[in-house]
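TASK: fixed-backbone design
INPUT:
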């Protein structure tokens, strides 16, 4: 005899597998964790402040040449 298959359960299983493959693709594409993004934003902010500290004329001082 043939094995009885619950079609509803089979559809749900297939749907879960498709969602998991989509999630894996998104993880590969957008691969950073929130903590990594926050750390990168903090470091870029500090680097920008260091660079601005070395300007001869600080930004926003009103002494525009030109």
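OUTPUT:
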């Amino acid at each position: 005899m043939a094995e009885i298959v619950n079609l509803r359960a089979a559809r749900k299983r297939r749907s879960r597998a498709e969602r998991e493959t989509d999630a894996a693709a998104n993880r590969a594409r957008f691969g950073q964790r929130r903590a990594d993004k926050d750390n990168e934003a903090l470091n870029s902010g500090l680097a920008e402040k260091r660079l601005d500290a070395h300007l001869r004329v600080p930004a926003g001082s009103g002494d525009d040449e030109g």
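COMMENT: The chain has a mean pLDDT of 86.
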